[in-house]
Protein backbone atom coordinates (compact mmCIF):
# COMPACT_ATOMS: atom_id res chain seq x y z
CA UNK A 1 0.00 0.00 0.00
CA UNK A 2 2.98 2.29 0.47
CA UNK A 3 3.42 2.29 -3.30
CA UNK A 4 -0.04 3.64 -3.99
CA UNK A 5 0.26 6.25 -1.27
CA UNK A 6 3.66 7.49 -2.39
CA UNK A 7 2.53 7.85 -5.98
CA UNK A 8 -0.98 9.19 -5.45
CA UNK A 9 -0.10 12.81 -6.21
CA UNK A 10 1.42 11.86 -9.52
CA UNK A 11 -1.85 10.58 -10.92
CA UNK A 12 -3.12 14.02 -11.82
CA UNK A 13 0.20 14.92 -13.43
CA UNK A 14 0.40 12.00 -15.81
CA UNK A 15 1.79 12.72 -19.21
CA UNK A 16 -0.13 10.95 -21.95
CA UNK A 17 1.02 10.09 -25.42
CA UNK A 18 -0.83 11.95 -28.13
CA UNK A 19 -4.32 10.50 -28.28
CA UNK A 20 -5.82 9.13 -25.08
CA UNK A 21 -7.46 6.41 -27.13
CA UNK A 22 -4.10 5.03 -28.21
CA UNK A 23 -2.91 4.91 -24.61
CA UNK A 24 -5.97 3.00 -23.48
CA UNK A 25 -5.83 0.50 -26.31
CA UNK A 26 -2.12 -0.15 -25.92
CA UNK A 27 -2.67 -0.84 -22.23
CA UNK A 28 -5.46 -3.26 -23.04
CA UNK A 29 -3.58 -5.07 -25.78
CA UNK A 30 -0.47 -5.19 -23.64
CA UNK A 31 -2.44 -7.09 -21.06
CA UNK A 32 -3.86 -9.43 -23.67
CA UNK A 33 -0.34 -10.40 -24.54
CA UNK A 34 0.60 -11.34 -20.99
CA UNK A 35 -2.64 -12.72 -19.58
CA UNK A 36 -3.02 -16.45 -18.87
CA UNK A 37 -4.10 -17.79 -22.25
CA UNK A 38 -6.15 -20.64 -20.88
CA UNK A 39 -8.36 -18.40 -18.79
CA UNK A 40 -8.56 -14.87 -20.09
CA UNK A 41 -7.71 -13.97 -23.64
CA UNK A 42 -9.84 -14.14 -26.76
CA UNK A 43 -7.69 -13.93 -29.90
CA UNK A 44 -10.28 -12.68 -32.38
CA UNK A 45 -13.99 -12.49 -33.08
CA UNK A 46 -15.58 -15.74 -34.17
CA UNK A 47 -16.71 -16.01 -37.79
CA UNK A 48 -20.44 -16.24 -38.38
CA UNK A 49 -19.85 -18.65 -41.25
CA UNK A 50 -18.43 -21.18 -38.80
CA UNK A 51 -21.13 -20.76 -36.18
CA UNK A 52 -24.07 -23.05 -35.57
CA UNK A 53 -26.67 -21.00 -33.74
CA UNK A 54 -28.34 -22.41 -30.64
CA UNK A 55 -30.62 -19.47 -29.85
CA UNK A 56 -31.85 -16.36 -31.63
CA UNK A 57 -33.21 -12.90 -30.85
CA UNK A 58 -33.28 -9.40 -32.32
CA UNK A 59 -31.33 -7.61 -29.59
CA UNK A 60 -28.96 -9.36 -27.19
CA UNK A 61 -28.29 -7.28 -24.08
CA UNK A 62 -25.25 -8.38 -22.10
CA UNK A 63 -25.52 -7.29 -18.46
CA UNK A 64 -28.43 -6.56 -16.12
CA UNK A 65 -27.52 -3.39 -14.21
CA UNK A 66 -29.07 0.02 -14.76
CA UNK A 67 -27.74 0.20 -18.30
CA UNK A 68 -28.75 -3.24 -19.47
CA UNK A 69 -32.23 -3.13 -18.01
CA UNK A 70 -32.86 0.35 -19.45
CA UNK A 71 -31.61 -0.80 -22.86
CA UNK A 72 -33.76 -3.92 -22.74
CA UNK A 73 -36.88 -1.98 -21.76
CA UNK A 74 -36.45 0.51 -24.58
CA UNK A 75 -35.67 -2.17 -27.17
CA UNK A 76 -38.63 -4.28 -26.07
CA UNK A 77 -40.98 -1.29 -26.02
CA UNK A 78 -39.83 -0.56 -29.58
CA UNK A 79 -41.02 -4.00 -30.67
CA UNK A 80 -37.76 -5.94 -30.71
CA UNK A 81 -37.38 -9.54 -29.55
CA UNK A 82 -35.00 -9.04 -26.63
CA UNK A 83 -32.78 -11.42 -24.69
CA UNK A 84 -30.89 -10.29 -21.57
CA UNK A 85 -28.04 -12.33 -20.11
CA UNK A 86 -26.28 -11.82 -16.77
CA UNK A 87 -23.03 -13.60 -15.83
CA UNK A 88 -23.75 -13.83 -12.10
CA UNK A 89 -26.59 -15.54 -10.27
CA UNK A 90 -28.15 -12.23 -9.29
CA UNK A 91 -29.90 -9.62 -11.43
CA UNK A 92 -28.72 -6.03 -11.07
CA UNK A 93 -24.92 -6.11 -11.13
CA UNK A 94 -23.17 -3.28 -9.29
CA UNK A 95 -26.24 -1.11 -9.79
CA UNK A 96 -28.26 -3.15 -7.31
CA UNK A 97 -25.58 -2.54 -4.66
CA UNK A 98 -25.03 1.15 -5.35
CA UNK A 99 -26.26 4.07 -3.27
CA UNK A 100 -28.09 4.97 -6.46
CA UNK A 101 -28.54 8.75 -6.28
CA UNK A 102 -29.16 10.41 -9.65
CA UNK A 103 -27.58 13.69 -10.84
CA UNK A 104 -30.45 15.43 -12.64
CA UNK A 105 -30.34 18.83 -14.30
CA UNK A 106 -33.33 21.19 -14.10
CA UNK A 107 -35.49 18.72 -12.20
CA UNK A 108 -38.76 19.56 -10.52
CA UNK A 109 -36.96 18.95 -7.21
CA UNK A 110 -34.37 21.63 -7.97
CA UNK A 111 -37.09 24.05 -9.02
CA UNK A 112 -39.03 23.44 -5.80
CA UNK A 113 -35.88 24.10 -3.77
CA UNK A 114 -34.94 27.18 -5.78
CA UNK A 115 -31.73 25.64 -7.12
CA UNK A 116 -30.49 27.34 -10.29
CA UNK A 117 -28.86 24.82 -12.63
CA UNK A 118 -28.12 24.49 -16.33
CA UNK A 119 -26.88 21.95 -18.83
CA UNK A 120 -23.70 23.99 -19.24
CA UNK A 121 -23.00 23.99 -15.50
CA UNK A 122 -23.61 20.24 -15.28
CA UNK A 123 -21.21 19.65 -18.19
CA UNK A 124 -18.61 22.01 -16.72
CA UNK A 125 -18.71 20.16 -13.39
CA UNK A 126 -18.13 16.84 -15.16
CA UNK A 127 -15.27 18.30 -17.19
CA UNK A 128 -13.50 19.80 -14.16
CA UNK A 129 -13.66 16.49 -12.27
CA UNK A 130 -12.51 14.63 -15.40
CA UNK A 131 -9.46 16.88 -15.86
CA UNK A 132 -10.95 17.86 -19.24
CA UNK A 133 -10.27 14.42 -20.69
CA UNK A 134 -14.03 13.86 -21.06
CA UNK A 135 -15.93 13.63 -24.31
CA UNK A 136 -17.79 16.91 -23.83
CA UNK A 137 -20.62 16.13 -26.23
CA UNK A 138 -21.39 12.89 -24.40
CA UNK A 139 -21.47 14.82 -21.13
CA UNK A 140 -23.92 17.20 -22.76
CA UNK A 141 -26.21 14.35 -23.81
CA UNK A 142 -26.28 13.08 -20.23
CA UNK A 143 -27.07 16.52 -18.83
CA UNK A 144 -29.74 17.27 -21.42
CA UNK A 145 -31.53 13.94 -21.03
CA UNK A 146 -31.09 13.46 -17.27
CA UNK A 147 -34.44 14.90 -16.22
CA UNK A 148 -36.59 13.12 -18.78
CA UNK A 149 -34.76 9.91 -17.94
CA UNK A 150 -35.34 10.30 -14.21
CA UNK A 151 -39.04 10.86 -14.86
CA UNK A 152 -39.03 7.80 -17.15
CA UNK A 153 -37.61 5.62 -14.36
CA UNK A 154 -40.66 6.46 -12.26
CA UNK A 155 -42.92 5.51 -15.16
CA UNK A 156 -41.09 2.18 -15.30
CA UNK A 157 -41.74 1.55 -11.59
CA UNK A 158 -38.54 2.79 -9.93
CA UNK A 159 -38.85 4.46 -6.54
CA UNK A 160 -36.79 7.29 -5.04
CA UNK A 161 -36.43 8.55 -1.48
CA UNK A 162 -38.95 11.02 -0.06
CA UNK A 163 -38.73 13.30 2.96
CA UNK A 164 -41.24 13.73 5.78
CA UNK A 165 -43.35 15.88 3.47
CA UNK A 166 -43.58 13.04 0.96
CA UNK A 167 -41.35 14.95 -1.46
CA UNK A 168 -38.30 13.87 -3.43
CA UNK A 169 -35.18 15.59 -2.14
CA UNK A 170 -31.59 16.43 -3.10
CA UNK A 171 -28.43 14.87 -1.67
CA UNK A 172 -25.06 16.69 -1.43
CA UNK A 173 -22.23 15.33 -3.58
CA UNK A 174 -18.67 16.60 -3.84
CA UNK A 175 -17.62 18.22 -7.10
CA UNK A 176 -21.10 19.46 -8.02
CA UNK A 177 -21.35 23.24 -7.86
CA UNK A 178 -25.08 23.06 -7.13
CA UNK A 179 -27.36 20.52 -5.48
CA UNK A 180 -28.70 18.31 -8.28
CA UNK A 181 -28.50 14.71 -7.06
CA UNK A 182 -31.92 13.20 -6.38
CA UNK A 183 -31.65 10.92 -3.37
CA UNK A 184 -32.27 7.20 -3.46
CA UNK A 185 -33.85 5.32 -0.56
CA UNK A 186 -32.63 2.62 1.82
CA UNK A 187 -32.72 -0.05 -0.87
CA UNK A 188 -30.25 1.89 -3.02
CA UNK A 189 -29.97 0.94 -6.66
CA UNK A 190 -32.16 -2.12 -6.15
CA UNK A 191 -35.08 0.32 -6.02
CA UNK A 192 -34.47 0.73 -9.75
CA UNK A 193 -33.12 -2.63 -10.90
CA UNK A 194 -35.83 -4.63 -9.12
CA UNK A 195 -38.80 -2.79 -10.66
CA UNK A 196 -37.09 -2.68 -14.06
CA UNK A 197 -36.58 -6.45 -14.02
CA UNK A 198 -40.21 -6.92 -13.00
CA UNK A 199 -41.36 -4.65 -15.81
CA UNK A 200 -39.34 -6.68 -18.30
CA UNK A 201 -40.89 -9.87 -16.95
CA UNK A 202 -44.34 -8.36 -17.53
CA UNK A 203 -43.26 -7.73 -21.12
CA UNK A 204 -42.15 -11.34 -21.53
CA UNK A 205 -38.42 -10.87 -21.00
CA UNK A 206 -36.76 -12.64 -18.09
CA UNK A 207 -33.11 -11.99 -17.32
CA UNK A 208 -31.12 -15.17 -17.94
CA UNK A 209 -28.56 -15.46 -15.14
CA UNK A 210 -25.29 -17.41 -15.05
CA UNK A 211 -24.57 -16.73 -18.73
CA UNK A 212 -21.22 -15.11 -19.51
CA UNK A 213 -20.16 -13.50 -22.79
CA UNK A 214 -16.85 -14.85 -24.06
CA UNK A 215 -16.75 -13.94 -27.78
CA UNK A 216 -18.51 -11.76 -30.32
CA UNK A 217 -19.45 -13.22 -33.70
CA UNK A 218 -19.04 -11.22 -36.93
CA UNK A 219 -20.14 -11.94 -40.48
CA UNK A 220 -17.99 -11.60 -43.60
CA UNK A 221 -18.79 -7.88 -43.81
CA UNK A 222 -17.59 -7.18 -40.28
CA UNK A 223 -21.01 -6.86 -38.70
CA UNK A 224 -21.54 -8.28 -35.23
CA UNK A 225 -24.33 -10.83 -35.60
CA UNK A 226 -24.25 -12.58 -32.26
CA UNK A 227 -22.16 -13.88 -29.41
CA UNK A 228 -20.77 -16.99 -27.79
CA UNK A 229 -21.79 -17.19 -24.15
CA UNK A 230 -20.99 -19.80 -21.56
CA UNK A 231 -23.94 -21.15 -19.65
CA UNK A 232 -23.43 -21.71 -15.92
CA UNK A 233 -19.73 -20.80 -15.82
CA UNK A 234 -17.59 -21.31 -12.75
CA UNK A 235 -17.10 -17.78 -11.47
CA UNK A 236 -15.22 -15.70 -14.03
CA UNK A 237 -13.54 -18.64 -15.79
CA UNK A 238 -14.22 -18.07 -19.50
CA UNK A 239 -13.52 -21.73 -20.33
CA UNK A 240 -16.03 -23.17 -17.88
CA UNK A 241 -19.70 -23.80 -18.50
CA UNK A 242 -21.47 -24.86 -21.69
CA UNK A 243 -20.85 -22.74 -24.82
CA UNK A 244 -24.04 -21.38 -26.40
CA UNK A 245 -24.18 -19.45 -29.68
CA UNK A 246 -26.82 -16.72 -29.64
CA UNK A 247 -27.71 -14.99 -32.91
CA UNK A 248 -28.64 -11.32 -32.61
CA UNK A 249 -30.44 -10.31 -35.79
CA UNK A 250 -30.30 -6.59 -35.04
CA UNK A 251 -27.54 -5.94 -32.50
CA UNK A 252 -25.56 -6.92 -29.44
CA UNK A 253 -25.62 -4.31 -26.65
CA UNK A 254 -22.74 -4.46 -24.17
CA UNK A 255 -23.75 -3.21 -20.73
CA UNK A 256 -21.23 -5.23 -18.78
CA UNK A 257 -19.89 -2.57 -16.42
CA UNK A 258 -16.28 -2.17 -15.39
CA UNK A 259 -13.39 -4.42 -14.39
CA UNK A 260 -12.69 -3.34 -10.81
CA UNK A 261 -12.65 -6.94 -9.55
CA UNK A 262 -10.30 -8.13 -12.30
CA UNK A 263 -7.05 -7.87 -10.36
CA UNK A 264 -4.69 -8.77 -13.21
CA UNK A 265 -6.41 -6.46 -15.67
CA UNK A 266 -6.70 -3.45 -13.39
CA UNK A 267 -3.12 -3.84 -12.17
CA UNK A 268 -1.91 -3.95 -15.77
CA UNK A 269 -3.60 -0.57 -16.26
CA UNK A 270 -2.47 0.91 -12.93
CA UNK A 271 0.29 -1.12 -11.21
CA UNK A 272 -0.47 0.48 -7.83
CA UNK A 273 -3.86 -1.24 -7.63
CA UNK A 274 -2.60 -4.58 -6.36
CA UNK A 275 -4.39 -7.01 -4.07
CA UNK A 276 -3.81 -4.76 -1.06
CA UNK A 277 -6.41 -2.35 -2.48
CA UNK A 278 -9.98 -3.46 -1.83
CA UNK A 279 -12.84 -2.97 -4.29
CA UNK A 280 -16.46 -1.91 -3.87
CA UNK A 281 -17.69 -3.97 -6.83
CA UNK A 282 -19.48 -7.30 -6.92
CA UNK A 283 -17.43 -10.31 -8.00
CA UNK A 284 -18.64 -10.25 -11.60
CA UNK A 285 -16.95 -6.92 -12.39
CA UNK A 286 -14.23 -8.38 -14.62
CA UNK A 287 -12.83 -7.67 -18.08
CA UNK A 288 -13.81 -10.57 -20.33
CA UNK A 289 -16.35 -8.55 -22.34
CA UNK A 290 -13.81 -5.77 -22.87
CA UNK A 291 -11.31 -8.35 -24.09
CA UNK A 292 -13.94 -9.79 -26.43
CA UNK A 293 -14.73 -6.31 -27.74
CA UNK A 294 -11.09 -5.49 -28.44
CA UNK A 295 -10.70 -8.88 -30.12
CA UNK A 296 -13.62 -7.89 -32.36
CA UNK A 297 -11.82 -4.69 -33.34
CA UNK A 298 -13.18 -2.19 -30.81
CA UNK A 299 -11.13 0.77 -29.67
CA UNK A 300 -10.62 1.04 -25.92
CA UNK A 301 -9.88 4.34 -24.18
CA UNK A 302 -8.93 5.59 -20.70
CA UNK A 303 -8.50 2.10 -19.25
CA UNK A 304 -5.83 3.28 -16.81
CA UNK A 305 -8.10 5.86 -15.18
CA UNK A 306 -9.65 3.91 -12.32
CA UNK A 307 -11.60 5.76 -9.66
CA UNK A 308 -11.13 5.09 -5.96
CA UNK A 309 -14.04 5.86 -3.65
CA UNK A 310 -12.56 7.92 -0.79
CA UNK A 311 -15.05 7.57 2.05
CA UNK A 312 -14.82 3.79 2.44
CA UNK A 313 -13.91 1.86 5.57
CA UNK A 314 -10.81 -0.36 5.70
CA UNK A 315 -12.52 -2.22 8.54
CA UNK A 316 -14.96 -4.06 6.26
CA UNK A 317 -14.69 -5.77 2.90
CA UNK A 318 -16.16 -4.60 -0.39
CA UNK A 319 -18.68 -1.78 -0.54
CA UNK A 320 -19.95 -2.58 2.92
CA UNK A 321 -22.19 -0.21 4.83
CA UNK A 322 -19.88 2.57 6.04
CA UNK A 323 -20.32 4.70 2.92
CA UNK A 324 -24.05 4.97 3.54
CA UNK A 325 -23.03 6.95 6.63
CA UNK A 326 -19.69 8.58 5.79
CA UNK A 327 -20.68 9.95 2.38
CA UNK A 328 -23.42 12.18 3.75
CA UNK A 329 -21.32 13.30 6.71
CA UNK A 330 -18.57 14.62 4.40
CA UNK A 331 -20.52 17.88 4.03
CA UNK A 332 -20.58 18.36 7.79
CA UNK A 333 -17.52 16.65 9.26
CA UNK A 334 -13.74 17.04 8.90
CA UNK A 335 -11.39 14.33 7.68
CA UNK A 336 -8.23 14.23 9.80
CA UNK A 337 -4.72 12.88 9.25
CA UNK A 338 -3.96 10.40 12.02
CA UNK A 339 -0.32 11.49 12.23
CA UNK A 340 -0.93 15.23 12.52
CA UNK A 341 -4.53 15.56 13.66
CA UNK A 342 -5.05 18.11 10.89
CA UNK A 343 -7.63 18.31 8.09
CA UNK A 344 -6.30 17.26 4.71
CA UNK A 345 -8.88 18.27 2.10
CA UNK A 346 -12.11 20.00 1.13
CA UNK A 347 -14.37 17.07 1.94
CA UNK A 348 -16.77 18.15 -0.81
CA UNK A 349 -14.21 18.10 -3.59
CA UNK A 350 -14.46 15.45 -6.30
CA UNK A 351 -13.66 11.85 -5.49
CA UNK A 352 -10.22 11.84 -7.09
CA UNK A 353 -8.90 14.79 -5.12
CA UNK A 354 -10.45 13.45 -1.91
CA UNK A 355 -8.99 9.97 -2.42
CA UNK A 356 -5.58 11.34 -3.42
CA UNK A 357 -5.46 13.45 -0.26
CA UNK A 358 -6.13 10.42 1.94
CA UNK A 359 -3.61 8.28 0.07
CA UNK A 360 -0.95 10.98 0.47
CA UNK A 361 -1.06 10.47 4.25
CA UNK A 362 -0.03 6.84 3.81
CA UNK A 363 -2.59 5.44 6.25
CA UNK A 364 -6.33 5.57 6.94
CA UNK A 365 -7.66 8.96 8.00
CA UNK A 366 -10.46 9.60 10.49
CA UNK A 367 -13.79 11.39 10.09
CA UNK A 368 -15.02 12.86 13.38
CA UNK A 369 -18.38 14.41 14.17
CA UNK A 370 -20.91 14.58 17.00
CA UNK A 371 -24.56 13.77 17.46
CA UNK A 372 -25.93 17.27 16.95
CA UNK A 373 -23.82 17.81 13.81
CA UNK A 374 -24.93 14.66 12.02
CA UNK A 375 -26.29 14.95 8.50
CA UNK A 376 -29.87 13.74 8.11
CA UNK A 377 -30.04 12.71 11.76
CA UNK A 378 -27.21 10.24 11.24
CA UNK A 379 -28.51 8.22 8.31
CA UNK A 380 -26.63 4.91 8.25
CA UNK A 381 -25.05 5.50 11.67
CA UNK A 382 -26.87 2.76 13.56
CA UNK A 383 -25.76 0.07 11.13
CA UNK A 384 -22.18 1.33 11.14
CA UNK A 385 -22.10 1.30 14.95
CA UNK A 386 -23.51 -2.22 15.14
CA UNK A 387 -20.91 -3.43 12.65
CA UNK A 388 -18.11 -1.88 14.69
CA UNK A 389 -17.04 0.30 11.77
CA UNK A 390 -18.00 3.54 13.52
CA UNK A 391 -17.14 4.07 17.18
CA UNK A 392 -18.93 6.20 19.79
CA UNK A 393 -17.00 8.44 22.20
CA UNK A 394 -17.82 10.70 25.15
CA UNK A 395 -15.20 13.30 24.22
CA UNK A 396 -12.90 14.44 21.42
CA UNK A 397 -9.95 13.48 23.61
CA UNK A 398 -11.23 9.91 23.86
CA UNK A 399 -11.67 9.74 20.09
CA UNK A 400 -8.18 11.06 19.41
CA UNK A 401 -6.60 8.60 21.82
CA UNK A 402 -8.57 5.70 20.34
CA UNK A 403 -7.18 6.37 16.85
CA UNK A 404 -3.65 7.17 18.06
CA UNK A 405 -3.89 10.83 17.09
CA UNK A 406 -2.19 13.79 18.86
CA UNK A 407 -4.90 14.90 21.27
CA UNK A 408 -4.07 18.61 21.47
CA UNK A 409 -3.76 18.90 17.69
CA UNK A 410 -7.13 17.23 17.16
CA UNK A 411 -8.85 19.47 19.72
CA UNK A 412 -7.31 22.54 18.11
CA UNK A 413 -8.33 21.43 14.61
CA UNK A 414 -11.91 20.65 15.60
CA UNK A 415 -12.15 24.03 17.32
CA UNK A 416 -10.87 25.73 14.17
CA UNK A 417 -13.35 23.79 12.04
CA UNK A 418 -16.13 24.90 14.36
CA UNK A 419 -15.29 28.55 13.65
CA UNK A 420 -15.67 27.80 9.94
CA UNK A 421 -19.09 26.33 10.65
CA UNK A 422 -20.13 29.36 12.70
CA UNK A 423 -18.90 31.81 10.06
CA UNK A 424 -20.02 29.67 7.11
CA UNK A 425 -16.54 30.10 5.63
CA UNK A 426 -13.84 27.42 5.34
CA UNK A 427 -10.63 29.45 5.40
CA UNK A 428 -8.40 26.40 4.88
CA UNK A 429 -9.93 24.38 2.03
CA UNK A 430 -12.90 26.47 0.83
CA UNK A 431 -15.45 23.74 1.47
CA UNK A 432 -19.00 25.05 1.12
CA UNK A 433 -20.46 24.99 4.63
CA UNK A 434 -24.14 23.93 4.62
CA UNK A 435 -26.61 26.35 6.15
CA UNK A 436 -27.73 23.72 8.65
CA UNK A 437 -24.20 22.68 9.70
CA UNK A 438 -23.61 22.50 13.46
CA UNK A 439 -20.44 22.82 15.51
CA UNK A 440 -18.80 19.60 16.69
CA UNK A 441 -18.59 20.27 20.41
CA UNK A 442 -21.11 18.16 22.34
CA UNK A 443 -21.25 14.43 23.15
CA UNK A 444 -21.80 11.97 21.77
CA UNK A 445 -18.91 11.99 19.29
CA UNK A 446 -18.42 9.52 16.45
CA UNK A 447 -15.32 8.43 14.58
CA UNK A 448 -14.76 6.24 11.54
CA UNK A 449 -11.62 5.35 9.61
CA UNK A 450 -11.48 6.14 5.89
CA UNK A 451 -9.39 4.50 3.17
CA UNK A 452 -10.15 4.50 -0.58
CA UNK A 453 -11.24 1.43 -2.54
CA UNK A 454 -11.40 0.73 -6.27
CA UNK A 455 -14.85 1.79 -7.38
CA UNK A 456 -15.44 2.84 -11.00
CA UNK A 457 -13.51 2.29 -14.22
CA UNK A 458 -13.34 5.36 -16.44
CA UNK A 459 -12.11 3.27 -19.36
CA UNK A 460 -13.84 0.95 -21.79
CA UNK A 461 -14.80 0.74 -25.43
CA UNK A 462 -15.21 3.94 -27.42
CA UNK A 463 -18.64 4.77 -28.82
CA UNK A 464 -20.27 7.53 -30.83
CA UNK A 465 -23.21 9.61 -29.63
CA UNK A 466 -25.60 6.86 -30.76
CA UNK A 467 -23.82 4.36 -28.47
CA UNK A 468 -22.38 2.48 -31.45
CA UNK A 469 -18.96 0.96 -30.77
CA UNK A 470 -16.16 2.19 -33.03
CA UNK A 471 -12.96 0.54 -34.19
CA UNK A 472 -9.36 1.77 -34.26
CA UNK A 473 -10.13 3.89 -37.32
CA UNK A 474 -13.12 5.45 -35.53
CA UNK A 475 -15.46 3.61 -37.87
CA UNK A 476 -18.67 2.13 -36.48
CA UNK A 477 -18.65 -1.63 -35.92
CA UNK A 478 -22.10 -2.53 -37.31
CA UNK A 479 -24.37 -4.39 -34.93
CA UNK A 480 -22.41 -3.56 -31.77
CA UNK A 481 -23.59 -1.08 -29.14
CA UNK A 482 -22.32 -0.31 -25.65
CA UNK A 483 -23.31 1.95 -22.77
CA UNK A 484 -22.65 2.59 -19.09
CA UNK A 485 -19.40 1.74 -17.35
CA UNK A 486 -18.45 -0.54 -20.26
CA UNK A 487 -17.79 2.66 -22.25
CA UNK A 488 -14.69 4.79 -21.84
CA UNK A 489 -14.07 8.49 -22.33
CA UNK A 490 -17.25 9.99 -20.92
CA UNK A 491 -16.04 10.85 -17.42
CA UNK A 492 -12.40 11.55 -18.20
CA UNK A 493 -10.06 11.07 -15.26
CA UNK A 494 -12.73 10.95 -12.56
CA UNK A 495 -16.49 10.52 -12.38
CA UNK A 496 -18.63 12.76 -10.22
CA UNK A 497 -20.78 10.99 -7.66
CA UNK A 498 -24.33 10.25 -8.90
CA UNK A 499 -23.32 10.84 -12.53
CA UNK A 500 -22.91 7.10 -13.08
CA UNK A 501 -26.64 6.64 -12.56
CA UNK A 502 -27.26 9.37 -15.10
CA UNK A 503 -24.76 7.95 -17.60
CA UNK A 504 -26.03 4.38 -17.30
CA UNK A 505 -29.72 5.17 -17.58
CA UNK A 506 -29.47 7.87 -20.25
CA UNK A 507 -27.14 5.92 -22.50
CA UNK A 508 -28.76 2.58 -21.77
CA UNK A 509 -31.99 3.99 -23.17
CA UNK A 510 -30.22 5.41 -26.22
CA UNK A 511 -28.46 2.11 -26.93
CA UNK A 512 -31.68 0.13 -26.62
CA UNK A 513 -33.66 2.51 -28.80
CA UNK A 514 -31.05 2.51 -31.56
CA UNK A 515 -30.39 -1.23 -31.42
CA UNK A 516 -34.09 -1.87 -31.99
CA UNK A 517 -34.02 0.35 -35.10
CA UNK A 518 -31.33 -1.73 -36.82
CA UNK A 519 -32.23 -3.73 -39.90
CA UNK A 520 -32.02 -7.47 -39.33
CA UNK A 521 -28.84 -9.10 -40.56
From TrEMBL:
InterPro entries linked to this entry: FAD-dep_OxRdtase_2_FAD-bd (IPR003953), FAD-oxidoreductase_2 (IPR050315), FAD/NAD-bd_sf (IPR036188), Flavocytochrome_c (IPR010960), Succ_DH/fumarate_Rdtase_cat_sf (IPR027477), TAT_signal (IPR006311), TAT_signal_bac_arc (IPR019546)
Domain FAD-dependent oxidoreductase 2 FAD-binding stretches: 58-499
Pfam families named in the record: FAD_binding_2 (PF00890)
UniProt key word Chloroplast: no
MF annotations from Gene Ontology: steroid dehydrogenase activity, acting on the CH-CH group of donors
SUPFAM superfamilies per record: FAD/NAD(P)-binding domain (SSF51905), Succinate dehydrogenase/fumarate reductase flavoprotein, catalytic domain (SSF56425)
Descriptive protein name: Flavocytochrome c
Amino acid sequence: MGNIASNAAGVSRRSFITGAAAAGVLATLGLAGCAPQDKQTASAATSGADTKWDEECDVLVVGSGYTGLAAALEAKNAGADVKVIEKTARVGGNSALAAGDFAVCNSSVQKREGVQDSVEQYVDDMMVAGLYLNDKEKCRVIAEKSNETWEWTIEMGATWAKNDNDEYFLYPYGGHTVMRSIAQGDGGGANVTGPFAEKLKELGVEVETKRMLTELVKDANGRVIGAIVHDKPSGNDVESGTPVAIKANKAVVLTTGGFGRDLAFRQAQDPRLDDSVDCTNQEGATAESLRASVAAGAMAVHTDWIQLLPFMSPDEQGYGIAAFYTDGQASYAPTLDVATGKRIVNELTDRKRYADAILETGQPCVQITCKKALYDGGSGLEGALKAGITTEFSSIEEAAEHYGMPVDAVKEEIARYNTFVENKLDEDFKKPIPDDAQTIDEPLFYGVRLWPKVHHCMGGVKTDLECRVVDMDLQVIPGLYAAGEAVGGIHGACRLGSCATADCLVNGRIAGQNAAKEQSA
